[in-house]
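hiii, so i know i said id send this last week but things got crazy w the move. better late than never?? heres the sequnce for the chain we talked about at the cafe, plus the structure i predicted for it. fair warning i was half asleep when i ran it
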Amino acid sequence: MLKVVLLLSVLLSGVAFAATDSRVCAPFRDGVVDHRIVAEMLKAAKAGRLYRIHSTTSRVGFCVNSLIGRVEAEFQGFRGGLALRREVWGDDSQMLVMIDSESLKTKQQFIRDMIQSERFLHTKKFPKILFVSTALEWDSETTANLHGVLTMHGVSKPISFRVELTNAFGEAPKHEHEIVVIAKAFIQRSDFGMTSLPFFVDDVVELCLTVSALRYHQQ
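okay and structure toks below
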């Protein structure tokens, strides 16, 4: 059961799902995600097998080295979820998340403007970042590799997150189904068509997530 709960928290939604509302998967319809995945998400919601994160205590962002130092940024808008199709997590389960690239926040405004510009994320043309899981590999009771496809800047590439169960916020879970995890992955921005300023910004970007998740129960 620990394995089930752990991965439920990775990359999940900052937006609550209403189990009886057919609009819960609206952002993923119309060909954005395979319709079969959307159907499973809706079934999971109705069956009480959907998991979501606490948006106020969860973080989705990235880090990259540059000539002015290490740049850290976070996205404030993200949604998605997990359809748990088995009592124990398996390949038949599905996770997906969508990030609003225009919700980016950084300490310096000029850094934010540069990242959102045509040189990098080009948020006006590519306002969404999408992750869809494909497989999961456990190597211990608390660590695993989550594989999937990341679509960003109009390019889709395979990606693997390293997932670890942790008490990142220094507090014990307040609910038996609540946990805290850290997930990290390294990508090359050039793989996603972002090749500008190679001497100013490193090609390798670290994706960082710290999230707490609670099982959704239909009211």
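btw The domain at 2-215 is CATH 2.40.128.110 (Lipocalin). thought thatd interest u
miss u guys!!
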